[in-house]
Design goal:
The complex is a heterotrimer of chains A (508), B (354) and C (302).
Chain A lengths: L5 E9 L4 E10 L4 E6 L5 H8 L7 E6 L2 E3 L4 H6 L2 E4 L11 H6 L9 H14 L15 H14 L4 E5 L7 H16 L3 E6 L2 H7 L2 E6 L2 E7 L5 H9 L19 E11 L5 E11 L3 E5 L6 H9 L6 E6 L2 E2 L5 H7 L1 E4 L3 H4 L7 H6 L9 E2 L2 E2 L1 H14 L16 H15 L3 E5 L7 H16 L3 E6 L2 H7 L2 E6 L2 E7 L5 H8 L11
Chain B lengths: L1 H24 L7 H14 L1 H25 L8 H19 L5 H30 L3 H21 L32 H19 L1 H11 L1 H6 L4 H28 L10 H11 L4 H23 L9 H34 L3
Chain C lengths: L1 H26 L7 H19 L2 H25 L4 H24 L14 E2 L9 H5 L1 E2 L1 H19 L1 H11 L1 H6 L4 H28 L10 H11 L4 H23 L6 H18 L18
Antiparallel strand pairs in C: 1-2
Classes of the chains: A alpha/beta (508), B mainly alpha (354), C mainly alpha (302).
């Protein structure tokens, strides 16, 4: 194979509090697909961002085709044929695909029609079907990703880095992506594929580099290994799934939450939810699976009170609450752990006690005659910190100073107390390390034992299968079906997630 | 705690640098800055009356800076404090002229207090409502509202409020029965100063110790999380603007009943924008606003005293010059402090052998 | 009536220059909150330049320079140092008053009669100015107005049909996309703010060099803020800026016209008309297309 296309040698990178990469060395050969496998926080994104010029390294060397180079910016990287497609696309949503692709690659007057035609041709060559003249913000996520890829192809990239590319795709869209990767590398280009999903690695990678806690722990060829070995290398220990109560027929508990033909339409006419009906009973964990962005967040918004249904009604313990205020819902005992804790669950500049107060500022327990009962609040906060093993010195720590996992544990601790009857979790373990994920799963099962109703929205099928009693699959704002746990295979769920309706009757 | 001391150090340093630069500009006037500054300082510090003037000037500034800082906590921009102050002044002078000599002073002052607060709050409340109901950009609306209120005041001064002599565009002077009592004989310092300090303390208590204050700060930092906590941002916007406007309106009481004793055109035309600058200097902290206002009052007196030094003709505009330069220096010091704090954090990590 | 319309076009000129400048800057994500101060320092710079040199052209050049100088400070603090834009703008607006008044005194002392300069002459465009009605309104104006005419199509073309315009528009919507495309985001913002400062200074000079022929610190009277508002209400597009400017120019002209004559409405109401109009429009205009990252400083390692 000759000189490797890219060689990273002894790269070290520190951020303010964390060593992100510790003496990392890896090579990428021409025509090769390298999978960079590891848990969240392993350092995979960081090392690639260094290669792409987004970060500077504290120590180390980069060699391109055997020559040492300095990469100080994405412009440098791109001039050497390196392009990176990140998890959050860097597209301008109000501009068209053509405008996004040519940004930075044109000078002077732009005859936009000519560019659109040229780009349509390139897209066809790769089998992509993407409209060139519509605002990118209106397109499906899979199509947006294709536009990002076209951006890289347009500037003659030979080394393509992709960061968790299938996180937002349906199984079928992922297959399409794998096909592209194979045809791209067949032409002599290289791909580095950052992921934490074993299945994709085994499907398309030539070589696998496993990272853990900022360092490379293993490097194997695909034909020399299997999923179990990789999982072991990735985590460094065996996973112990939480013990679930035997799947014997449990007593059907009281109805806690009921969606009755709920539809939600946005002001612009977009239909977010279409005729959704389901019931969750006490002591039950109800899961919603699906690619994110298909209405799961809207279901949570309707339950929490942020949005009101355009049609249909919402019932809580038998009473209609479709238009009841958020404040009353909190008081009634609905707890909610949102998907984006930075935006929706915490105020990073406030201390932990005040973050707890966010859900309690109307509660007589914490406010008397308008004044905050600081001593009681601080004590309660310390209790939560202890009970849920949040790594913090005390109630006076700033929320922003905690790690992601500990922030989530604090939110969890707050919500399980607020949610006396119903708990809503939206992707509660996203982006967290194994220890935190484990803890959160244990807590959810504990709350189920306390006979609370639990709604769990997740994009991780393993989590859904392990935790839920019943599973609904969402696509385009609709429930494709509601199934008992164990009734569906992954392939079947994949089809449902993509909007292909199953033949099985849905069990209500 | 160290952070707060840091802030104080950097801000003080910035003020000092700003003053130094301003002093150098005096060279343009062919004067010796050191000499002029020394002369000015001695004139102020040795004269009880002048020292009192510092507090007199600071009083309305405390109110307008509190007004801006209060809405700033909710991440709102009330640029209309000047207009809210003028509305408060209109009510203050009208009530005083109507009730003076028929109502005992204490009661009159109380009524004027309530009235000027309400007037400012009304203007503020309208702006807050526009923001709450129509998502209007409160920056623009409040900015424009000052011009509208100023013209409204001019209209009143020309017509219904005009002095009986009908010679100038100003009201009659209010009688001594409506004056705010003097608290420091030998100066013009009046009760309004204590009112301002009390207001600042009350605002501080409100913001840090009450549920409402918490809700305001939560909405200011993160309206989404606040919403999920059951706090409705639109309600908070209106409340914040009501209180903010009311605070600015109270400056009407202090300036009409405590200092000028009448309403005229171009009445304290800059206290609104100075209030913004002071709030910035104080980092939005209500207690800090007291001290920063006194500082600005001091700069103001320095400017007028310099202007009165015999022989030199230093213009009054030196005040704006000094204040503008000091504010820019403080803003730059924020950046500097952020950078230094970041760097020391990184160094600490490196030393920890990471 | 004819006079009124001609006046309206004339009064629109500085508003248009300022609004276009603000549109470009805000499209990159920078609100120029120092616009009122830039107008003022441009007015003063223009006056001083014209007075000292005797040439109106040099006056205009000085105005542009003054505007750029103030914009330089603003850009340094808000783009390079990433500080809050409203707060910095307020500081500079106050500083502008101080600088103008102080150095006016330094240069000219206390004159017994107000200093005067000649104002820009009306330059009738050959042929076009002879068109009945339209000719007199549009083509018998001063050079700044003609400059504004030319700028309208140019600004539309540059913003929507050139790579510079694409870059500018992308910077305000998603600076990360621009950074990733290899363009220095802060440089785009910095230079755009400087250019906007130049045009803002020119706009301010209209009031001294183009119209009144003398300088006072209250000469701008909030019109910089109206240009700011027009950018907002015109939906951040040059076309919207033109429409907004015409509306306000008309309001301004009406208020000047009625101030000198007698009318049933109180003069103060007439004077307040442009401001009231701004408030009403700000409240009732919805459906904006705000640049997504307006007012948000950009730094790489977030």
């Amino acid at each position: 194979m000759g000189t490797p296309a890219v060689e990273l040698q002894h790269v070290t990178k520190c951020f303010a509090k964390v060593v992100a990469n510790r003496d990392v060395s890896l090579t990428v050969n021409t025509g090769e697909v390298v999978a960079l496998l590891g848990e969240n926080g392993a350092g995979k994104s960081t090392i690639m961002k260094i290669l792409y010029g987004l970060y500077g390294m504290d120590e180390g060397t980069i060699l391109i085709n055997g020559q040492p180079v300095q990469i100080k910016s994405p412009a440098d990287a791109m001039s050497r044929g390196i392009a990176m497609i990140q998890q959050h696309f860097s597209l301008v949503p109000t501009h068209t695909a053509a405008e996004n692709i040519i940004l930075g690659n044109v000078h002077g007057y732009i005859p936009i029609k000519k560019y659109e035609a040229k780009l349509r041709q390139i897209a066809q060559d790769y089998g992509f079907d993407v409209p060139m003249d519509r605002p990118v913000g209106q397109l499906a996520v899979g199509q947006q990703q294709k536009i990002e890829i076209l951006k890289a192809l347009y500037i003659n990239t030979s080394i393509l880095i992709m960061d968790e590319p299938t996180a937002v795709l349906t199984p079928q869209e992922s297959d399409s992506l794998m096909r592209f990767i194979k045809s791209f590398t067949a032409k002599g280009n290289s791909v580095v594929f950052i992921t934490h999903k074993m299945k994709e690695v085994m499907e398309v990678a030539d070589r696998i580099v496993v990272m853990r806690s900022g360092a490379v722990v293993a490097e194997v060829r695909r034909d020399e290994t299997d999923e179990h070995a990789l999982a072991h290398m990735m985590i460094g220990q065996d996973i112990v799934p939480p013990v679930r109560a035997a799947a014997a027929e449990e007593e059907a508990g009281q109805e806690v939450l009921r969606f009755d033909h709920v539809s939600l339409r946005e002001k612009g006419g977009t239909e977010l939810l279409r005729d959704v009906s389901f019931t969750i009973r006490a002591g039950e964990i109800f899961g919603i699976a699906g690619v994110s962005g298909n209405g799961q967040d809207d279901i949570c918004d309707v339950i929490s009170g942020v949005k009101q249904p355009t049609e249909g009604a919402l019932y809580f313990c038998g009473e209609e609450i479709s238009r009841v205020s958020i404040r009353q819902r909190n008081a009634a005992g609905i707890g909610y752990v949102p998907v984006d804790r930075y935006r929706d669950a915490m105020v990073m500049d406030m201390d932990l006690a005040e973050n707890i107060l966010l859900k309690g500022c109307f509660d007589k327990k914490w406010v008397s005659r308008g004044f905050i009962r600081r001593r009681e609040l601080n004590r309660y906060t310390d209790e939560i910190i202890a009970k849920h093993r949040v790594k913090a010195t005390g109630w006076s720590d700033l929320a922003g100073g905690l790690s992601g996992g500990n922030q989530q544990k604090l939110v969890l601790g707050r919500e399980v107390d607020v949610g006396k009857r119903l708990l809503v979790f939206n992707q509660p373990t996203r982006g967290l390390d194994m220890g935190a994920v484990d803890r959160i799963h244990h807590v959810i099962l504990e709350e189920k034992e306390k006979k609370k109703a639990v709604l769990l929205v997740s994009t991780e099928l393993t989590e859904i299968f392990e935790m839920c009693d019943r599973i609904a699959v969402m696509h385009s704002g609709r429930f494709m079906g509601i199934y008992r746990s164990g009734e569906l295979t992954t392939a079947q769920i994949g089809l449902l997630m993509a909007g292909v309706s199953g033949e099985k009757e849905a069990a209500q | 705690m160290r952070k707060k001391v840091n802030v104080l150090l950097y801000n003080t340093g910035a003020v000092a640098v700003g003053l130094l630069i301003s002093a150098c500009l005096l060279l343009f006037m062919d004067v010796n800055p050191a000499e002029v500054c020394a002369q000015t300082l001695s004139k102020i510090v040795t004269d009880k009356y002048n020292l009192g003037e510092v507090l007199v000037k600071a009083t309305p500034l405390i109110f307008t800076s509190l007004a801006f800082a209060f809405t700033y906590k909710a991440n709102l921009f009330n640029i209309g404090a000047q207009g809210q102050f003028l509305m408060g002044s209109i009510v203050a002078v009208s009530l005083s002229l109507a009730l003076q000599d028929t109502v005992p002073t204490a009661l009159l002052l109380l009524l004027v207090l309530v009235g000027s607060f309400a007037a400012g709050a009304a203007v503020g409340g309208l702006i807050g409502a526009a923001k709450a109901k129509f998502s209007a950009n409160e920056f623009l609306v409040s900015m424009m509202s000052t011009y509208v209120v100023t013209n409204f005041m001019d209209y009143l001064l020309r017509t219904s409020l005009q002095e009986t002599k009908a010679e100038y565009m100003q009201t009659d002077a209010i009688s001594a029965g409506a004056y705010l009592p003097n608290i420091l004989p030998g100066t013009r310092v009046h009760l309004g100063f204590l009112l301002a300090v009390a207001a600042a303390v009350l605002v501080w208590v409100l913001l840090s110790k009450t549920s409402l204050g918490f809700q305001i700060r939560a909405v200011g930092r993160n309206p989404f999380s606040a919403e999920l906590g059951g706090i409705r941002a639109s309600r908070i916007y209106i409340i914040a603007f009501l209180i903010s406007g009311g605070l600015a309106g109270l400056a009407g009481l202090t300036e009409i009943n405590g200092v000028q004793h009448m309403l005229l055109r171009d009445f304290n035309a800059s206290i609104g924008s100075y209030g913004i600058g002071i709030a910035i200097l104080a980092n939005g902290n209500p207690i800090g606003c007291i001290f920063a206002s006194i500082l600005f009052g001091f700069l103001n007196i320095m400017g007028t005293t310099m202007g009165r030094l015999p022989g030199l003709s230093i213009p009054a505009s030196i005040i704006e010059l000094i204040e503008g330069i000091v504010m820019i220096c403080v803003i730059i010091s924020y950046a500097l402090r952020g950078y230094m704090e970041n760097r020391s954090e990184k160094q600490r990590m490196r030393k920890a052998g990471v | 009536m004819l006079n009124l319309l001609t006046r309206a076009i004339m009064m629109s000129t500085p508003l248009l220059l300022g609004a276009l400048a603000e549109v470009y800057a805000e499209r990159t994500g920078m609100m120029i909150c120092a616009i009122e101060g830039i107008f003022l320092i441009g007015a003063w710079g223009g006056f001083v330049g014209a007075y000292l040199s005797g040439s109106l052209a040099l006056g205009l050049l000085a105005a542009v320079a003054a505007g750029i100088a103030m914009a330089l400070v603003y850009a340094f603090v808000t783009v390079t140092l990433r500080q809050q834009q409203v707060v910095t703008g307020t500081a500079l607006n106050i500083l502008a008053v101080g600088v103008c008044a102080f150095f006016q005194r330094v240069l000219f002392g206390v004159p017994t009669t107000p200093l005067q300069i000649d104002t820009l002459p009306k330059l009738p465009v050959p042929l076009l100015s002879r068109i009945p009605l339209l000719g007199e309104i549009f083509f018998q104006q001063n050079i700044l107005t003609y400059l504004a005419y030319i700028l309208i199509p140019i600004s539309i073309f540059v913003l929507y049909k050139t790579s510079l315009g694409l870059t500018i528009r992308s910077t305000g919507e998603n600076p990360v996309a621009v950074d990733v495309a290899g363009i220095n985001v802060n440089r785009v913002r910095f230079l755009t703010v400087l250019a906007a400062g130049g045009f803002g200074g020119l706009a301010g000079s209209f009031y001294t060099v183009g119209y009144l022929g003398m300088f006072t610190t209250s000469i701008i009277g909030g019109r910089g803020w109206i240009a700011f508002a027009i950018c907002f209400l015109g939906n951040w597009s040059p076309k919207g800026a033109v429409l907004g400017t015409l509306a306000f120019g008309l309001a301004d002209a009406i208020s000047v016209y009625f101030r000198t004559g007698t009318t049933v409405f109180p003069t103060e109401l007439i004077i307040a008309l442009p401001y009231i109009l701004t408030i009403v429009l700000t409240i009732f205009r919805s459906n904006f297309q705000v640049p997504a990252k307006l007012g948000v400083p950009y730094s790489k390692e977030n």
